[in-house]
């Protein structure tokens, strides 16, 4: 177990290093002078360009810039916002809580719905219910979150015009108002994930239900509910866990569009604003945070996979 964890940890560090390099190069190898682009044509005097280049460290070599940036990042210093003058880490810290809440709510809702839906599709083969669930799952995968969010807004305005569905209220300030405003964004973000997870559960359950240990459990006279949930589902959860890790990263990144639709002041809206303002230090830090979060989530899923399946410890 320890050896497997150390092996996965080494892979995590290697991937995190690669992500940091790609994030750095993504910004610094954009054609044109970054300082001139950030200032714009009106304010791009040679003196201002030189001052901003020095402030951002753009007058150094790429290797020196990366070394300085990554050394600061390891100490929690991701640079300073060009427009507000505040540390980037403070700007992100004030917004990331909203994105984390939306991601956790969406992932929880997706798991709670996908597990019984997948089991239903696996056990009710060639039935009307199984066909209906399959159609809904395909529809969920193909419907974009931003379109679904817009439709939910129109629907809420028609059905419950007094319902507050846009904006954000902190949970500590008013839990009911917080959940009311997070309901529609959670549905819009979770539905495509529900469809994907349900299909994974269905495929895994169908394979598990055909195994010898399931036939043995049925021969012993166990109830069908116990056979499904105590025996088959336990083994079907292993590929499900892997997919959950991937979907968690998708939700964290996919919240960008949903936050725009529902006016949520999260990391997604912060990134969109930074792109519009050409605030490169903030863009760079936000991308690094999102990608590293995705890598860490998948590392934790790997640990759960190892705990659930002892055979994975030998790989």
TrEMBL record:
Cellular compartment(s): Cell membrane
Residue spans crossing the bilayer: 12-30, 104-124, 136-159, 179-201, 236-262, 282-308
Annotated coiled-coil segments of the chain: none
GO CC entries: plasma membrane
InterPro entries from the UniProt entry: BPD_transp_1_N, MetI-like, MetI-like_sf
Topology of this chain in the membrane: Multi-pass membrane protein
Domain of life: Bacteria
Family: Belongs to the binding-protein-dependent transport system permease family.
UniProt name for this protein: ABC transporter permease
């Amino acid at each position: 177990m320890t050896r497997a964890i150390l092996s996965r940890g080494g892979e995590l560090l290697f991937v995190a290093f690669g992500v940091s390099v790609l994030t750095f190069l993504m910004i610094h190898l954009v054609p044109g002078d970054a300082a001139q682009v950030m200032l714009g044509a009106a304010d791009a005097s040679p003196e201002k360009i030189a001052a901003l280049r020095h402030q951002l460290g753009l007058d150094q070599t790429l290797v020196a810039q990366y070394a300085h940036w990554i050394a600061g990042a390891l100490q929690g210093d991701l640079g300073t916002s060009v427009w507000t003058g505040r540390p980037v880490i403070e700007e992100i810290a004030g917004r990331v809580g909203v994105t984390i809440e939306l991601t956790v709510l969406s992932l929880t809702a997706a798991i709670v719905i996908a597990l019984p839906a997948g089991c239903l599709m696996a056990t009710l083969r060639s039935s009307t219910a199984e066909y209906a669930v399959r159609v809904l799952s395909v529809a969920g995968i193909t419907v974009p979150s931003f379109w679904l969010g817009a439709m939910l807004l129109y629907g809420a305005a028609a059905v419950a015009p007094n319902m507050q569905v846009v904006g954000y209220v902190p949970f500590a300030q008013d839990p009911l108002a917080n959940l009311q405003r997070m309901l529609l964004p959670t549905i819009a973000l979770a539905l495509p994930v529900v469809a994907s997870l349900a299909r994974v559960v269905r495929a895994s359950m169908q394979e598990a239900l055909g195994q010898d240990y399931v036939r043995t459990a049925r021969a012993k006279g166990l109830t069908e509910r116990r056979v499904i949930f105590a025996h088959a589902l336990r083994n079907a959860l292993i590929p499900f866990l892997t997919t959950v890790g991937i979907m968690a990263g998708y939700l964290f990144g996919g919240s960008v569009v949903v936050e725009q639709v529902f006016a949520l002041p999260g990391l997604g809206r912060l990134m969109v604003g930074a792109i519009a303002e050409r605030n490169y230090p903030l863009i760079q830090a936000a991308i690094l945070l999102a990608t590293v979060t995705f890598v860490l989530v998948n590392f934790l899923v790997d640990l759960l996979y190892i705990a659930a399946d002892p055979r994975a410890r030998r790989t």
